[in-house]
Each structure stands twice: as structure tokens, then as C-alpha cells.
């Protein structure tokens, strides 16, 4: 293919662009650059001829080769009679040799059959071609494809790409793929080199490759060479170590994620129970109400302002806070305030309230779960290690929990309300004597705790189902956090929530979710043996 | 003061002589002795270098104190001096960070639980009177009575006439006989104080720790309390924490002044009142 | 609740039935016994169907079920009403007793299951080839009867020892017991645990060789439940009238005073807690053959907390109160859930609130005021 050919292609392209549909036109423009014998072999040849032809096309390095092979793989290449090869897309057909649009479609068209072997070769070939793309993203995607299913046919392309490749990530992937191909067929030296290369990788797939080398069948090693096996052993250990670190990192992250959710759920409780001594069994239902408030806001946005849908959390957060806080204040005024100082009675009465709230939500929204859709910026995630992906929704919730925590801390330490709340907590009658209106403070503190429950519900709606029973599943856990963390201390709540979250995830990976929960309960009971007041209780002079 | 003012106390001396351990027989006032409590050196409570801190606040700071058997000791001191914490340590409610607390020569109080210490013979009255409000006065005394207090014997327990007489006697002593059938929760504050003291007497302890026993009592009641305590001294060892200085001056053999968790002064009331440091602490500069 | 004590009355020197209750109370008990052991059996088995005096199978089963609940409420009253410890995990002990009995009933199905296997259907379904070790000996009724007592009893003993020893009390204790039953519920929901997972045990065929759905078997179970209920009422009365009963109430009102009086509250609490759990277990064992099913939802926290409300409605700190409460709430529930199913939770919720706010002494308290 000389310079002249390329110029002609350019002319053809501009001319044809005006005439026919885009996708087809691009193929046509490039078609003339392909070697005709290869196309003929691919369309009419025997299997071996076809595979050879694929190699030729890959070797040509032409962009059009990629398009043709892709069409072949997609079943768009058809033949008519003994000579005509067409690429058919919908109603348009293009002659593969000439690039001319063929109208009307010939009557008798035969598919070019692509068997499994061909399919594998084609996939590899396409990936190899993509490897020479100037676009890094395309190359990266191709390298990933190759890693997952690579045939020997891709080896020359990979070698070629390795020589040219500058991007470290793509290069690393390619080296790995080469290694895995070498491992299958290569001689001892190649195998050893491949194994060393694999040792530098940290994906699960390479580990399986190395394990295969060390496999035994009926007591005999599949791999006869001891040196190769030893090298594989070494590489496997290295891979394992890195995978282990990645695994730990992933678990710590999901543990922290669970921990922040527990923290959000327990933070309001830490205020109502920890500071005010009110045991509120309807706390979970206030979370549930926050989640439903988010659902309603989300639905309204979808209906009335679909363009602004991504911004609905900005409205949902304050609305969830306000509604849960409002419900909380009503509960406090009507029921809970009559029960101050009678914790067991409060427990029962608030349980009754929770039943009514659950049934109320069922009556209004139905017993089925409702779907809360994430705003688009919260979907997806980012990869911090090869096998560790952090979903955005979780990351956002961690940040959200941190800011709620900060806000609560500031409110308790820097505002007048916080000052009064702490005063009432420490000495109710003295605070009252100094002119603090304790009933009002009780109401506001309870409202604050309830509002935070609403925020927790808002966050939970982003990562799970929203249903009338949502709160029930969190109440036991949040109480565990408060019990473990100790009463009256935000720091205790934070440490307990994160600690329980991480511990839960690690135990879960080890023994499954149910046994993990049970082990945590046992742990809490044992822990309370040692520190009955929780992690961070103030030791005080017993009255 | 005649025996008849407080019927039953000396003559119902709870422990027959046969129970007195042989190694204690050298002590003249042998009726004080209970099996297990070795007061051969005269002291019954030994606190040595006790320190207790709550979150950095030193409630007790290197407190050392010896109370002799049969003594009536008053402990005074400003608020926060550590008086109640001291009682908490003696009764096992609070474990000291350092130091030792012995009951007699042999019983390490820091190793025992509250009920065990109570069983050994240390009774305690709280600052805020705590009685069983949903039980009658009679039942309160019955529950406090020295007996086998394990679960099964308690289930099978019956009230024999000796025990009954003892309760009736104490009811007379604490002037609550007419109220015997009333719920303790319905008593006046002063009456509750007396009931609690009565419950302590029912326990037949060696040592009575009394935290502000006359707070909330009328003058008349306070008078009677003073008389009662002075009758009990000798028979029992009393440690009284009190703010009412007149009351202290009236009853105390010896006074211990606590300040900021340690002993500031000790001696007779007159001595203590002369002490420069004490005057400084109590009256300010 | 305290009976005004007459200081000059004769000393309580021996245990005599006459002292447990007033003559009027004994009269009530006699009437109850007459109804349970004579009237109901005659009207159910002898009076033909269609006759106005006939008592249907449904009524007998419902009454038997409610008596089981009454036993549970009685157990709850001993620990909560008298000792002041609110357990939110009593449903667990009830269910464990039920499961222990259920194991025997499952074994008694023999080869009559859907798969005609000597293993229960759920094990066949899981492709298990033999019974796990903890099913050993469960074909023996008396062994299972022993489990009914031992399993809830030992669990309560161990759990209670650690909890009471570290002085977990009040709301903390309630929350921990709730977590306990929650954890067990999760455990029993698992198929691998070997107790039938979600579905639990059901489709029982016979008990001690008698067909379990036969009228006579049902009547026998009903009468047994009645006898057990009356027995536990007597035992409960004996306990609360003893000095130990007074210590328990004292623990409820002023635990520190109890300690400083020389009683170790740990062991007293442990005694009544374990006894209460065992009573619950026995109630569960009586419940399962009558109702014909036991599954992990019995262990849900909501179930346990409902037990507390039966006791509260009837009147805490009286023995007859919980029986009245369990009967009232459950009769109301079975009527309401049929007539207005969607409003039952509202009513139950209101019951929790109104009883705690306005009726702290329950129905028995109303009675007491009148008398």
C-alpha cells in the first residue's frame, strides 16, 4: 500500500461520506486498502486458510482490517455466488473488494460461517488490531480482552505491541497475557520467564494460571520440570501476598462503609439515648421515614424536573432531616415526655410507636419496597487497586457521615443548644434552676436525634431497598453500637461503629454473615464483662 | 443512758460466746469478736495508702486510716473531700487504684464483693436513705436480718419466734413499731433514715458505716440518733460521716478530717478544732 | 402488689397451701380446673357437633394456645414484674423449647414424609445423608422432654451468669437479650443449622404413637397445658410469697441495698431468670404439638416484646394478671386479625402506649382498686 493508495482513500472517503450512511461509508473507504486474497480466503477458504488470512489482515495493520474482522465476527459478512463478498448492515450492502454500495441486495445470500475456533481467532485478532490504535482507552480495553481470552494467534500482535507500547498499564497487561500464552506452550526458558512475569501481577486470573502449573493429577505433577515448579511456587507466593493486601484493603473499605452506615444509624440514638437517656425503639422507624422522604423527593423530581434529577439529594437531605425531626418532636411531645426516668416503660411505648409508624407507612406507600434511584454522579465507582473498586455511592456516604458527625459535634460543642443539652445531661435540676427551659431542650435534642435518623435513612436509600421494615433491621445493630461505645460520648459511638463495621466484614469473609453477627454479639457480651460502661464511659463517683 | 431506751441491743448480743474464736480470747471485750475477724491488734479497719481517681480527678489521694474496734469515729470534711468514696472502697463498691484495705488483720476488703463484705460484718447506710419502698417496714427488717443469704436457704426460709422477737425489738428501737405494716415508701425522710439504721442493726454487723445519718431529721430525731449511736459504740464500731458539727461534737470519740482525698487531721473534736490547717480548709483564708 | 403485712399475725413457720392464697382465690382456681378438666373435654368430645353446647376443635386449640401464652406471660412476670428485669428475649426460650419438642415430633413422622425417607423432608431436600450429631437420641420422647428443660435453662444460665455478673441491667440488659434472640433467629433461618431453615418444623403426624390431629390427642394436650399452667401458678405463688420472693422485689426496688444487706443479687437473678426461661421452654414444648408448626419467626424480636405487653396489659407483679393479659390480647388479636387485619398493628401499637402511659398496673390493677 503506497502513498498514492492512501490519497485515493481520502478522496473516496470525502466523496462517499456524502452518499451513504456513516458506518458503512467508513468501511467502504477503507475496504480498498485490504489485500483481496485474504478477503477471498476468509469468505470461501478452508479453516486453516481462513486463520492464515486473519493473520495476514492483522499483519497489515490497516484500520479497515479491524472493521472487516469485526463484521465477520458479528455475522455481517455474506457471500453471493462464488465471487461476491458483501458486508451487510441492515438494508445496505457493500462489496468487500470494491467498497461500492450494492443495490438492490442480491437475492441469494449465504452467511460466512464462523465456528468456535474462528471466533476465538477473530476475537484475538480484533484485540491485537485494537492494540495498535492510537487511542489509549481502546488499547487498554483490548489488552483486557486479550487477557481474558487469548489465542496463540495473538502472540505476534502482542509481541509487536509490547515493543511499541509506552503506557505502563497496557504494557503490564500485555506482558501478563504473553506470559500466560507462553506458559501453555512455550519451552522451559519461556515458561520460566513467563512465570516471573506473572509473579509481578496482582489479578486473580494470573493466580489460577500459576496454580495450574503446580497442579497434580493422581499424585504426579502436571508440570514435569522441578525448576519451573519452584519458580511458580515463588511467583505464586508473591502474587498471593499482593492479592492478600488488596483483599484486606477491600474488606477494610467495605467495613468502613458498613461502619459509617452504622454510625449514621446510631448517631441519632447516641443523642437520644446517650445524652437524654431516652430509649427510643422507634428510632429505626425514623430512619425509615427519612428514606421514604427521600423517595418522595426523588419521585417529585422525576415527575416535575427530570432535568434537575441529579440534584435531588440536595433537596432530599434537608427534607429527610426535617420530616424525621418533626415526627420525632411529635412523638416526644405526645408520649415520650411523660415517661422520662422510666426507661423500660419508654422502651415499650416507643415500640408501640414503631408499630404504628410501620403500619402507617404501609397504609400510605404499600407494603412493597420502593425503588430510590441514585443520581448519575453516584453510580459507578473507581478502582484503587486492580481488584478493589470503590462504588461512588459508598464513598459519598462515608463523606456524608463524616460531615454529619462534624456538624453534630459542632452543634454540641459550639452552639447554645449544645451547651444547654450538655448542661441538662449533666445536671437536669441545676440546669433548670439556672433558667434553662429543660422541656424545650429535651424536645429540641430529641428532634435533633430524630433528624439525624432521617439523614441516615436518606443515605440508606441510596444503597439498599426502602421498605416499611427498613428500620427494624437497623435497630438492633445501632443499639449494639451505642452499648459498645458507651453512653454520652460521641467518640465512643464513632469508634464502636467503625470497629463493628470492619470486624463484621472480616468475620463475614471468614465465617459468613450470620455467624459473623453471632460472633459480634458474643464479643459485645464478653467486652461488657470487662468494661460494663462501654468503650468511652466517664467513670464517675457512684451516687 | 439506760439499756431500756434502746431495748434489745446489749442483751440480745448476737453472737454467743462459744462462737468467739480461740485466738481472740486474749482481748478483754471479747463480745465484740466474730469468727473470721481478727482484731487482735485492736484495729478493725485498716486503710493504707488508698488512692482512687476518676478520669484524672483524685477522689482519694494516699489515704491512710485506722479505726479501732468499738470506736465511734466521725469523718468530716468539705464536699468532695472523698468521704463517700472512702466508704465505697471499704464496702467494695469502688476498687482502689492502689493501696490496701483490711477488715481486721486478715480480711482483704479489696478482694471481696459488696455482699461478701456485708456478710463479713460491715453494714452501710447511704447518704440518701435506701430502703425497700415496696415492702412493709417489718419485711424490710426481716430481709436485712442476719441469716443464710444464699438462694436456696432464702427460698426455704421461715421466720421463727426468736427472729420475730428480734425484729419487734428493733422496731421498738427505731420507734417504728406502729408503722410495722406500712410500706416503707410511705415513711417520712427521717423515718426512712431510722429504718435503714434498723436494717443495719438487723444485719448484726461489726462495723457500721453511716453516711450522713441525721440529714433530714428533726432536732428531736437527731437527739435520739446521737443517743442511739453512743449506745451502739463499744458494742459495734461506728464510722459516721456527718456535716452537722454539733452532732459530731456531741457523739465523736475521735474525729478524722478529710481534705482533697487524704487525712488532714485526726484527734478529739477539740484538738481538731484547734488545728490551723483545718481552720483554713473549713473557714477559708 | 405487696400484701399489707400484719406484724402480729402468726409467724410463717411452714409451707401450707392455705397460706398461699385467700379462699376466694382458691375458689377461682377450682372453677378454672373444673372448666379445663371437665367442662371443655365433655363439651368437645361428648356433646355432638351442632349442639349449642358443643365446643369446636378450633376453640380448643385456640384455648390451648392461649394457655401456652399465659404460661409464657407468667414466666415474664416473674422476671419483669417481680424482679424488674425486662427480658426482650423470652420468645427465644419459648422457641427453643418448641424446637426441642419439634425434633421429637419430626422423628416421629417416620417414613410418612413427602420423600418417604427416614430423614425429615428438609434434610432430604438439602441432600443430607444422615442426622447431624445434635439430632442423636431425639427419637426418644423423654430425651427431648429433657432438652425442653435443659436447652433454654442452660442457655439462660450461661447468658445470665455473664450478664448479671458484669451488672448489665435495666435497658442494657433488655437490648442485649433482644440481640440474643435476633442472633438465634438468624442462626435458625440458615438451612445449614439443621432445623429446617425458614420453614422450621411442621407436618407432624403423631406424638407418643397417637395421631396428633385426633380429637382425643388434642384434648389430652389441652388438659396437660391447663395442668401445667395451674402448676406454674402455684409454683409462682410459692416463690413470690417466700422470703426469696421478697428479695426479688427488693432487687427490683433497691438493688444496692440488697447487696449491702449481704445478698448476692447475681445468684437470685440467675435463679429466677433461669427458672423463667425453663417455664418458657416448657410452654413452647406444649405449644408446638397443638399448633403444628415451629419456625424461626418465633424468635423475632417483635414476638418477644409482645410477651412483655401481655404481662403489662394484665398487670405486672400479680400472678393472675399475666394470665388475664395473655388471654385478652391474644383473643383480641385472633378476632381482630380476621375482622380488620390492617388495623391490628395500629391497635397493638396503641396498646403498648396506652398501657404504659395510663394503665401501669394493668387490668389486675383496676380490679385491685375496686376490691
Task: Describe what you observe in this structure.
With 543 residues, chain A is mainly alpha-helical. Chain A has helices at 3-19, 22-31, 36-44, 47-60, 63-73, 116-131, 136-148, 155-164, 168-185, 188-198, 204-213, 226-275, 283-304, 312-334, 343-365, 392-414, 416-426, 428-433, 438-460, 472-485, 490-511, 513-530, and strands at residues 77-80, 84-89, 92-95, 101-102, 110-111, 216-217, 220-221, 381-385, 388-391. The termini of chain A are far apart. Chain B has 285 residues and is of the alpha/beta class. In chain B, 32% of the residues lie in helices and 22% in strands. Chain B contains 10 helices and 10 strands. Chain B has helices at residues 83-90, 114-120, 137-144, 151-156, 161-173, 189-202, 219-232, 245-251, 269-274, 276-283; strands spanning 43-54, 57-68, 72-76, 98-103, 107-108, 122-125, 207-211, 237-241, 254-259, 262-267. In chain B, the strands form 2 sheets. Chain B has a 6-stranded mixed beta sheet with strand order 6-7-8-3-9-10, sandwiched between helices. In chain B, strands 2-1-4-5 form a 4-stranded antiparallel beta sheet, with helices on one face. Chain C has 371 residues and is an all-alpha fold. Chain C contains 15 helices and 4 strands. In chain C, strands 1-4 form a two-stranded antiparallel sheet. A two-stranded antiparallel ribbon of chain C has the order 2-3. The model of chain C is unreliable at 1-15 (pLDDT under 50). Classes of the chains: A mainly alpha (543), B alpha/beta (285), C mainly alpha (371). The A-C interface holds A 279, 335, 338-339, 343-349, 351-356, 358-360, 362-363, 472, 476, 479-480, 483, 514-515, 517-518, 521, 524-526, 528-529, 532 and C 86, 159, 162-163, 165-168, 170-172, 174-176, 178-180, 182-183, 186-187, 189-190, 301-302, 305, 308-309, 312, 342, 345-346, 348-353, 355-357, 360.
Largest interface: A-C, 38 and 42 residues
Compute the separation of the termini of chain A in Å: 97 Å
Number of strands of chain C: 4
**Shape by Cα distribution of chain A:** elongated
Largest sheet of chain A: 5 strands, antiparallel
Structural class of chain A: mainly alpha
Q: What share of the residues of chain C lie within helices?
A: 55-70%
Q: Roughly how many Å apart are the termini of chain C?
A: 13 Å
Rg of chain A, alpha carbons: 33 Å
C-alpha Rg of chain C, in Å?
Answer: 21 Å
